[in-house]
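INTERNAL AUDIT FORM
Audit reference: QA-55
Scope: verify that the stored structure record matches its stored sequence.
Auditor: D.O.
Record contents follow.
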Amino acid sequence: MPLIYYYDLMSQPCRALYIFLKITGIPFEGKQVALRKLEHMTDEYAQINPFKKVPVIDDSGFILTESVAIFMYLCDKYKINNWFPTDLKERARVNEYANWQHFNLRATGSMLFRTKIITPRMTNKPPNERELEKWHQQWQESTNGLESVWLARSSYLGGDHLTIADLLGICELMQPIAAGYELDKEKFPRVHDWMERVKRETQPFFNQAHAMPMRLRDTLLKNEKSKL
């Protein structure tokens, strides 16, 4: 029985896991859960994940939530040691980033996206500009953490090669970009170069996973341009 994967590609960790499953060749059956239609809030889905979030995997009846835990489980089960090293110190670096991101890059990028896209659609009101500025500034500070710490000591977030930390990181960075924001290449040259490397090394699956977010970005920029 193949792994069952519940996901929505508008979710950052869902995209990261989708890329990982594709690039490693782990067989899976995809079950899309449309967040925009509130399919994750149904009683039926609550039987799968009581927290009503994605992603989730069902491995022959073993149901696991939380993206980082899923990554670790799959790497250990399939012995994919290049993505989640077995060396104690190398693994600790990956774990260090995976723990750091929750209240930094993930939190700030998610709130920027929510303030720009989700809340206005739910309330039928324009974005709160003060809130946008606050979250944009905090997103910039988190991005500077990548520039001045993580990528200052190694070429990838978890060391000298691609790991699950990089998939988690780049998909979080892409969320505000999907909302129409830009990465400042002059301010964050290491981050820019790292993103280009990760994209290149994960094709064609990176583009597949980000097709929907990029369509959203194109629509937003087109609408903003038409208002000028």
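Auditor finding: record pair retrieved intact. The two ends are 54 Å apart (CA to CA).
Action required: none
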